[in-house]
Amino acid sequence: DKAGESRLIYGTLDFNDGKNTFQSLMLQTAPVLLLFHPTTGPNARVDSQPSRFDFSTGTNRAEPIRDWIARQLPDGPKPQISRPINYVRLISITTAVLGLITFLAVAAPYYLPVIQNRNLWAAISLIAVLLFTSGHMFNHIRKVPYVQGDGKGGVSYFAGGFQNQVGLETQIVAAMCTLRNGIFDNRTRSTS
């Protein structure tokens, strides 16, 4: 608070430099954060006992401490957290990004042919189409069983009714679509 708008002054005292002060405040542990309220003026408090922040909760971040101070202060400007630039983090991120760019540039001759392979993308697209048209996403979202009982001690591979399906049914439909597409492709090739 360089402008002094919150009218708050921070100070530190080491035990070696202020043993008498620690004894007069009856402090047994450190660190201790005490907030001394004004004794004169419009925000004065009758009791002159300082407010105390408890570090025993394991607080090691600035935000809870700043919030506690802000709650203790009267209405008006509150102090903000101002952190110095973390140069180690900045250098680490810069080095990692430059290393990644260098790796991508050096490895480009090896991975670009794979990424630009039309047959690979066609296979991925075909697999995705077959998965989605065969009900795989339906099974994944609804978490359907793989097979179900038929009520007579056997196993049913197809669920009856609408909006019902079992996992094995999806695989059977996918295999049938694949076979049908393969047979259809062979017929069109032989006729042309």
Automatic annotation (TrEMBL):
<keyword id="KW-0732">Signal</keyword>
<feature type="transmembrane region" description="Helical">
    <location>
        <begin position="120"/>
        <end position="138"/>
    </location>
</feature>
<keyword id="KW-0812">Transmembrane</keyword>
<dbReference type="InterPro" id="IPR021149">
    <property type="entry name" value="OligosaccharylTrfase_OST3/OST6"/>
</dbReference>
<keyword id="KW-0808">Transferase</keyword>
<keyword id="KW-0256">Endoplasmic reticulum</keyword>
<comment type="similarity">
    <text>Belongs to the OST3/OST6 family.</text>
</comment>
<comment type="function">
    <text>Subunit of the oligosaccharyl transferase (OST) complex that catalyzes the initial transfer of a defined glycan (Glc(3)Man(9)GlcNAc(2) in eukaryotes) from the lipid carrier dolichol-pyrophosphate to an asparagine residue within an Asn-X-Ser/Thr consensus motif in nascent polypeptide chains, the first step in protein N-glycosylation. N-glycosylation occurs cotranslationally and the complex associates with the Sec61 complex at the channel-forming translocon complex that mediates protein translocation across the endoplasmic reticulum (ER). All subunits are required for a maximal enzyme activity.</text>
</comment>
<keyword id="KW-0472">Membrane</keyword>
<keyword id="KW-1133">Transmembrane helix</keyword>
<dbReference type="Pfam" id="PF04756">
    <property type="entry name" value="OST3_OST6"/>
</dbReference>
<feature type="transmembrane region" description="Helical">
    <location>
        <begin position="87"/>
        <end position="108"/>
    </location>
</feature>
<protein>
    <submittedName>
        <fullName>Oligosaccharyl transferase subunit ost3/OST6</fullName>
    </submittedName>
</protein>
<dbReference type="GO" id="GO:0016740">
    <property type="term" value="F:transferase activity"/>
</dbReference>
